[in-house]
Amino acid sequence: MHTTTLATFFEISRTMCAAGVLIFLIALWAARTDIAQGSGLDKIVALSNMCFAIPLAVFGALHLARVDFVLPLVPKYMPGRLFWAYFVGFALLSASLSIATKILVRWSGLLLGIMMFAFVAMMDIWVARAHPGNRLGWTYVLRELAFGGGGWLFAGSAMREADKKSNTVGRVLIAVGRVLVGMAAVFYGIQNFRYPLNVPGVPLEMMMPTWIPGRLLIGYVTAVILFVAGACILLAQKTRMAATYLGTWIVLLVLLVYGPIMVVSLANPSTGVKVEGINYFADTLLFGGAVLAVASATARRD
């Protein structure tokens, strides 16, 4: 292996990749019983905590190891901007470990959702309103809302498990999380129809590389699944089935599309390109985890 490539691998693995791999192993161990007891696609649903926790660890590690990448995102009117950049990093790592191990999820999921909604209120919504014709602004808004909704879905499920007789707060959190994830899926479905050659799932700026076969087919199939499943989730019709199918498809996209993109980016000498490749992988996996959280929080009789 070339010396530069080897050094690049270890540079990234010490931060974002290492955090993601560690949480992957922890979450997989914590979910081993649910995976063994699940049948069919329920085994994928059992991975919801893992799919949600891994990206949180990756982003938390980025905040701590490369704070220069995230510091410009902190609003300039915030006092102690460097403190908040590090604070969010520790908060993401803490939430990741909690959700991966299923310990104190009622609090970690609740607080994570509040933090994501604060990001929308303080940053994303103002960018989207300033440029209403730019689809990316609203893509970011709905992305953060879906992430926050995912946190509330986990928290609501934990509250419901802890108190099966009186779980009003848990039911409200689950309902709000379901609506937010459904809204994002419907919007993303429309955007994937309009821009089928952009990376699928969460339709951001990156184009699918030309070396990926069937790019146009992937884009349109993803659009259909997102829109139909998102509408079912939003309207609470066949919610578990729709969320299971959509979440499974998103996880497949992460493995078969975003995985190769990340591997190629890690071989690039530019640190920015490497971070971008990892971010896209983690970003889409986090959305998939939020979708699977809808399935996990929905009764099987649905």
Please give a quick description of this structure.
The chain is an all-alpha fold and 302 residues long. The chain is built from twelve helices and no strands.
Topology:
Blueprint: H1 3-30, H2 32-37, H3 42-45, H4 48-65, H5 67-70, H6 81-101, H7 105-130, H8 135-162, H9 168-194, H10 215-235, H11 239-266, H12 271-297
Helix pairs in contact: 1-4, 1-6, 4-6, 4-12, 6-7, 7-8, 8-9, 8-12, 9-10, 9-12, 10-11, 11-12
Structure write-up:
This protein is globular. The protein has 302 residues and is mainly alpha-helical. It is built from 12 helices and no strands. Mean pLDDT is 90; it is low at 1-10. The protein has helices spanning 3-30, 32-37, 42-45, 48-65, 67-70, 81-101, 105-130, 135-162, 168-194, 215-235, 239-266, 271-297. The chain has one domain (3-297). The termini are far apart. The chain is 79% helix and 0% strand. Helix 6 packs across helix 7 (105-130) and helix 11 runs antiparallel to helix 12. 47% of the residues are buried.
- What is the average per-residue confidence, as pLDDT, rounded to a whole number? 90
Tell me the Rg in angstroms.
18 Å
Q: What string gives the helices and strands in order? A: HHHHHHHHHHHH
Low-confidence stretches: 1-10
Measured by DSSP, the beta-strand proportion falls in under 5%
| Quaternary class | single chain
Q: Helicity, in percent?
A: over 70%
Number of domain units:
1
Using brief descriptors, characterize the structure shown.
single chain; 302 residues
